[in-house]
Design a protein that fits this description.
Blueprint lengths: L1 H6 L5 E5 L9 E5 L5 H12 L6 E4 L20 H22 L9 E6 L15 H24 L3 E7 L2 E2 L16 E2 L1 H14 L8 E3 L4 E2 L2
Helix pairs in contact: 2-3, 3-4
Length: 220
């Protein structure tokens, strides 16, 4: 949020979260649960009053929580955990798109972006494991690709993206990232700067792709 405000490219910035609060002055705050479509719809209706939306960024995601952990083997597959991963990583961003893409202008550049992951790439999967997280991100990538095809028919300058931030020093990655330094390991602020740069340089020809923090394309 702070980086978006500091950029000064947007007249109004809104933050959507489960708490409905934001520490950044001048940012509109809305309470939303990514798996509750009604809350998403209410926020979209409120934000629509400010006019067209030229950037939507979905940063939700689950890799592990409470009784959910990345599977090392197919023997660990659990239907409840799979449903939770798909609800947050796949269905949630799709519902945000359902209610917010209509707010994007028909003419002029606009972006809908959602955090994805390199491990969602089917072609790039060489290690196995992490069934639920991989599958939910792969499904997200397919939804974004399909959305890009449809949106291009009515909003030709709109850009739909999946974004891979690299490994970020957050609680999501903490149990799995090993050392605190290395190529592709970033602080949250560094990751934000990278992703804002990727979005700033993205073109409609890249719509539907998953782009890494350095702007490279991740295979499907």
């Amino acid at each position: 949020m702070r980086a978006l405000v500091a950029e000064g490219r947007h007249d109004t910035v809104h933050a959507l979260s489960r708490t409905g609060r934001t520490p950044v002055a001048g940012v509109g705050a809305h309470q939303v649960d990514i798996i509750d479509e009604a809350s998403i719809a209410r926020a979209a209706a409120a934000i629509a009053a400010d006019g067209p939306v030229d950037l939507v960024f979905v940063a939700s995601g689950i890799l592990h929580e409470r009784d959910i952990a990345p599977e090392k083997s197919f023997k660990a597959l659990d239907p409840v955990a799979l449903a939770r991963l798909f609800a947050v990583n796949t269905t949630g961003p799709a519902l945000v798109a359902k209610h917010f893409v209509p707010l994007m202008p028909r003419r002029g550049r606009s972006i809908f972006a959602a955090l994805s992951a390199r491990v969602g790439s089917i072609e790039d999967n060489r290690l196995g494991g992490w069934y639920g997280y991989r599958a939910s991100k792969a499904a997200l990538n397919q939804l974004l690709r399909t959305l890009a095809i449809e949106v291009a028919r009515t909003k030709p300058e709109a850009i739909i993206l999946g974004l891979h931030p690299g490994t970020v020093r957050t609680e999501l990655s903490r149990p799995f990232r090993g050392g605190e330094a290395g190529a592709g390991v970033f602080t949250p602020d560094e990751s934000v700067d990278h992703l804002l740069g990727v979005m700033a340089s993205a073109t409609p020809q890249q719509s539907g792709r998953v782009l890494a923090w350095d702007g490279s394309t991740i295979p499907a």
